[in-house]
Amino acid sequence: MDPISHTLSGLVFSKTITKNKVLIIIFLVFSLLPDIDFVLRIHSAELFLYYHRGITHGILALFLLPLIPAFIFRSKFGFLKTYCFAFLGYGLHVLLDFTNQYGIKILSPLDWNSYDLSLTFIVDPYVIFPLLIALILSIKFKKQAKFFYIFSMIFIAIYIGLKAYFKFEAREFLKQKIEAHQYRVYPLPNDFLRWWFVARFSDEYITGCVDLLGQRIYTDSKYRIKNDEVILKSKESESVKALVNFAKHPATEIKREGDTILVIWRELSYGFLPNDRFTAKVWLKETSQGYKIINSKLKI
């Protein structure tokens, strides 16, 4: 989720269970803390893609980091109470991120695989607005504040449950219309009844949209799974290594630009996004010793 969603959810959840301002701040800080790994972006896009939602979103951080405020405020609120507030704030962040298709490496550093539910988009108005409205109404109607908080959280829980149902329906409809070896469906921004899909065959990927309302499948693109020499060489690029490590469905496209060969790697689960998001481009030249990488660029 985005920082706005995490801030609003941290405020609403903490205000539901306490009125103490210090405990609310502890909860809020820890509901934002996992995204401290965003500083990796300063170094490079490659490092960010390797480790974002990794250790700071892992189970070890979830259990260990809340010990810090628990020790600091143990005399004021008690060790266990403070620990629980920090733990719940941290856990709320991890849980919300788990609903995105970006996923979290919850078992890192023991296991660097990413896990996800692929139910909500990173910026989801159906999560943001109920929380925002609850906070606004709580200012005007202070006595009913807890009711608004609880109602907004119930609304979001029902919303995510409905998304799970529609995702299942979209996948089953896709399986009826296309015969493939693997089917994956992903949420489209602000949409219940349309889902992005990636279907894999033995040597090909097909991407498109499942429209449950119109009961139709729209094909967007097809990508052959290749292992040409130029593609294998492009894998030596740090940009491609980072993307392939992250991607669930990496696919390639080869273009010629004068005397230069351009290899484009795409993460197909984000194929609906504009401006070539989640792509790695590698420029190569052919020499007497084979192909030579002259430049690469990662866009996320």
Summarize the SSE layout with pairings.
Blueprint: H1 3-17, H2 21-32, H3 40-43, H4 45-51, H5 59-64, H6 67-72, H7 74-77, H8 79-98, H9 125-140, H10 145-177, E1 182-187, E2 194-200, E3 204-211, E4 216-224, H11 229-234, H12 238-246, E5 250-257, E6 260-267, E7 279-287, E8 290-299
Antiparallel strand pairs: 1-2, 2-3, 3-4, 5-6, 6-7, 7-8
What key attributes describe this structure?
single chain, 300 residues, alpha+beta, 3 domains, 4-stranded antiparallel β-sheet, 8 strands
**CA-based gyration radius:** 22 Å
Oligomeric description of these chains: single chain
Q: What sort of overall outline do the alpha carbons produce when their principal axes are compared?
A: globular
Overall residue-averaged pLDDT value: 94
Euclidean distance between termini CA atoms:
16 Å
Range of strand content: 15-25%
Count of the domains: 3
Helix content: 40-55%
Strand pairing plus helix content: what structural class? alpha+beta
Largest sheet: 4 strands, antiparallel
Q: What low-confidence regions span 5 or more consecutive residues with pLDDT below 50?
A: none
* Helix and strand run: HHHHHHHHHHEEEEHHEEEE
- Output the number of helix runs: 12
Instruction: Record the strand order, biggest sheet.
Output: 1-2-3-4
Q: Can you count the beta strands?
A: 8
